[in-house]
Design brief:
The N terminus is likely disordered. With 599 residues, the protein is an alpha/beta fold. It is built from 19 helices and 22 strands. 54% of the residues are buried. Strand 16, helix 13 and strand 17 form a beta-alpha-beta unit. Helix 4 packs across helix 9. The two termini are 35 Å apart. The structure holds zinc ion. Zinc ion binds next to loops.
C-alpha cells in the first residue's frame, strides 16, 4: 500500500491508516487495489483535513472488524459517513473534538452492519400486514391464528397470510376445508413459507374460477382430490397465480409506508445492506418508484442491490432492463447490475430437480428443472456478456450442477474471472460438485434458517429425499472446506429476517428451542467468526462493494452495529437473547434501542 499518499492533505489518520492497515484482507485483483485507493482519496476529499475531529466516536468496546489482518479493536471514529479510525482507546481520543458525539461502549461488541445477501424486500414489506404463520406447527394453531387475524380485520375484503409449513398438515398439503373452518365469509389465501405453494379457501377458489374442469397452467398444478377430481385448495408453483392475480394489491402510498416499516424493522435487526433476489420487469415498474422515492427522501436506510428476474423464453428484456438500470443506479445506496433465474423449485413440493428420484414417492421422478440446460447456459452467458452478475436459484442437486455448468459456460465464453456468479440456496449437492465453487469462483448464497431442524425439516424435507442426500443438506461447512465463498441471508419473508436467529442456526444447527440437543448434522455448522463474515464482508464481496463496506477499516463507509452481548465470550445460546442496541448506516443512527443512551 506504499505510495498511497493523498496529495495536499496533511492527513494524519488517513495516511497512517493506509500505511499501517492491510485493507480488505488478501488483495485478489487489480480492481480491488484501484478501488481501495479511490476510497481513500475520496475520503480525504470528502471530509476535509484528516486531523479534523470525528463526528462520532464509539469507544471502550470489543470491536470485531471482519478484517483478517487485524480482527479486534476497541474504538471506531466516524466522520462524514466514513470510518476514519479503528484502533485502541488512546488513539481514538485524538479524534475527539468539542462537538464529537461519543458512544461509551462499556465493553459491548461492535461488528460491521449486517448484509442480508438474499431477501425479497417488497414481499417482506407486504407481509407485514398479513397473518404470519411461520412458527406454527399444528393445523389447530394455524387455524386459530388465522381466525383471530380475520376477526381483527373485519373490513378486509380478503384474509391474507403467509408462512405455513408443509409439515403442519397430514399428507404435507393443506385443504380448503381446513381454511373454510377458519374463514368462511370472505376469500382467504395463505402463501406457503417458501412462496412455491398456496392454500385457498372455497370462496377464493370460486373467485379465481378454479373448478374440477380447470386445466393445470404451464409450470403449475392444481392439487385435486384423487377420488372426486375436485380442487383440494392447495396450489403448486404457477397455479398459485390463478388466485394471487385476483388479490387486490395495496396502492402505491400504502406500499411505500410498508416499505418504510420494513426498512425500520431491518435496521432494528442490525441490517444495513440487502441484496434483493429479484423482481420481474413488470414488478419493477410498480416497485422501483417506491425505492427511488425512499432514496430521494433520504429514507432508504438499508443499502439495496437489486436483481431483475429472467425466465425461460424471457431473457433479453430482463437483461436489457438490468443493464440499463445498472447505469442509473450505481450505489452506494441503490444499486442494480444483476439478473436472477430459477433453475428449479423446492424439495418440499417435489419441484426441485434431483439427480436421483425422490425417496418418498418415486412417482415424482427426479423433479423437472425449469430450464433446458442449453437455454440456461445461453441465458447466463448473455447476461454475462452484458456485464451483469447472475444469481441462480438451485435447490436440488441436479439444479445445482446445471447452475455450475451455466456459470462455467459463461466463464468459458467471456473469460471474465471476476464475475462473482452466484447460486442461491444449494439445499442439496452431489459430492463431486463441492470443489467447483472455488474452481469457478462461484459464490454459494445460503440462508441458515432454511436448515432450521423443525418438524417440517424432518417430516417433509428429509423424508422426501432420504437420509443419504439429507446428510449433505445445507452443507455450509463442506463448502467452506472446499474453499468456496459463502454468503448468508434470510430469504425474508420466507423466514424471519432476524439475523440473530440465522446466526444461531448457522453455529448450532438447532431450533430456537434448542432441538435436537446435539444439533442437526452439526458437522455442517460453521464457527461464529465465519458466520459473521458471511453476514458482512463476504456479502459485500458478492455485491462488488468489499472495498467500500463490510468490514471496519479507515476509509470504509460507517455501517456498524452495537450488540447487547459479547457473542465471542458466551455459549451460542447467548445469540438468541442478543439485542441490537445501535445501528449506524453511513455514520447515521438508523436504529437505537430504547434505554441505550443517545450520543
Ligand atoms: Zn428467495
Amino acid at each position: 500500500m506504499e505510495g498511497l499518499t493523498v496529495p495536499g492533505a496533511s492527513s494524519y489518520s488517513i495516511v497512517s491508516a493506509a500505511a499501517s492497515w492491510t485493507i480488505i484482507g488478501p488483495v485478489t485483483n487489480k480492481r480491488m487495489l484501484v478501488s481501495t485507493a479511490a476510497v481513500l482519496l475520496g475520503v480525504a476529499a470528502a471530509v476535509g483535513p484528516a486531523d479534523a475531529p470525528a463526528d462520532l466516536l464509539l469507544t471502550g468496546g470489543r470491536v470485531w472488524t471482519a478484517e483478517m489482518a487485524r480482527p479486534w479493536a476497541e474504538a471506531v471514529a466516524v466522520r462524514g459517513g466514513r470510518i476514519v479510525y479503528v484502533g485502541d482507546v488512546s488513539g481514538a481520543a485524538r479524534h475527539r473534538g468539542p462537538k464529537t458525539r461519543v458512544v461509551a461502549l462499556n465493553g459491548r461488541l461492535v461488528t460491521p452492519g449486517f448484509d442480508d445477501a438474499h431477501i425479497h424486500l417488497m414481499s417482506g414489506a407486504l407481509s407485514l400486514e398479513r397473518v404470519d404463520l411461520i412458527e406454527d406447527e399444528s393445523v389447530a394453531t394455524v387455524q386459530a391464528r388465522i381466525r383471530a387475524f380475520a376477526a381483527a380485520h373485519p373490513s378486509s375484503a380478503w384474509v391474507l397470510g403467509r408462512g405455513w409449513l408443509y409439515g403442519s398438515f397430514p399428507g404435507g398439503l393443506p385443504t380448503r376445508a381446513q381454511l373454510d373452518a377458519a374463514v368462511a365469509d370472505r376469500p382467504a389465501y395463505m402463501e406457503c413459507y417458501d412462496g412455491h405453494s398456496g392454500w385457498a379457501n372455497s370462496k377464493a377458489l370460486a373467485l379465481a374460477g378454479i373448478t374440477k374442469e380447470t386445466k393445470d397452467p404451464v409450470g403449475g398444478a392444481i392439487v385435486r382430490d384423487p377420488a372426486t377430481g375436485e380442487p383440494t385448495g392447495a396450489l403448486k408453483e404457477a397455479a398459485t397465480a390463478l388466485v394471487e392475480s385476483k388479490i387486490p394489491r395495496p396502492g402505491a402510498e400504502e406500499r411505500y409506508q410498508l416499505l418504510l416499516r420494513a426498512l425500520r424493522l431491518l435496521n432494528s435487526q442490525g441490517i444495513t445492506s440487502v441484496q434483493d433476489a429479484g423482481y420481474s420487469p413488470k414488478e419493477l415498474d410498480a416497485e422501483l418508484p417506491l425505492m427511488e422515492r425512499a432514496l430521494r427522501e433520504g429514507k432508504l436506510t438499508v443499502r439495496m442491490t437489486v436483481s431483475v428476474q429472467m425466465s425461460p423464453g424471457d431473457v433479453d428484456a430482463p437483461v436489457a432492463r438490468a443493464a440499463a438500470l445498472a447505469k442509473v443506479h450505481k450505489g452506494p445506496v441503490l444499486r442494480f447490475g444483476a439478473v436472477k433465474g430459477f433453475v428449479d423449485g423446492v424439495i418440499e413440493a417435489h419441484t426441485a430437480a434431483m439427480l436421483q428420484p425422490y425417496s418418498d414417492d418415486p412417482s415424482f421422478g427426479t423433479g423437472k428443472p425449469n430450464w433446458e440446460p442449453a437455454a440456461l447456459d445461453a441465458a447466463v452467458t448473455a447476461a454475462d456478456t452484458a456485464g451483469l452478475q447472475v444469481y441462480l436459484h438451485a435447490i436440488g442437486d441436479r439444479a445445482v450442477r446445471m447452475a455450475l455448468d451455466a456459470h462455467e459456460a459463461a466463464l468459458r465464453a467471456n473469460g471474465n474471472d471476476d464475475r462473482r456468479g452466484r447460486i442461491e440456496h444449494i439445499e442439496t449437492i452431489a459430492l463431486a460438485d463441492y470443489p467447483r465453487f472455488r474452481a469457478l469462483g462461484v459464490i454459494a448464497s445460503m440462508q441458515p434458517l432454511h436448515a432450521n431442524p423443525d418438524q417440517n425439516n424432518a417430516d417433509v424435507w428429509s423424508h422426501n429425499i432420504g437420509p443419504e442426500r439429507a446428510s449433505r443438506g445445507f452443507s455450509w461447512r463442506n463448502i467452506e472446506k472446499a474453499g468456496g465463498r459463502l454468503i448468508f441471508g434470510s430469504d425474508w419473508p420466507v423466514v424471519t429476517s432476524d439475523v440473530m436467529r440465522g446466526l444461531y442456526c448457522a453455529v448450532a444447527r438447532k431450533t430456537k428451542d434448542g432441538t435436537p440437543p446435539g444439533g442437526w448434522h452439526p458437522e455442517q455448522a460453521v464457527s461464529l467468526e465465519s458466520a459473521l463474515r458471511h453476514y458482512t464482508i463476504d456479502g459485500a464481496y458478492a455485491s462488488f462493494e468489499d472495498a467500500e463496506k463490510g468490514s471496519l477499516a479507515p476509509g470504509k463507509r460507517a455501517d456498524l452495529v452495537v450488540l447487547s452481548e459479547d457473542l465471542f465470550a458466551q455459549p451460542p445460546e447467548a445469540i438468541l437473547k442478543t439485542r441490537v442496541l445501535l445501528t449506524l448506516m453511513e455514520g447515521r443512527i438508523v436504529h437505537r434501542t430504547e434505554g441505550f443512551p443517545a450520543p
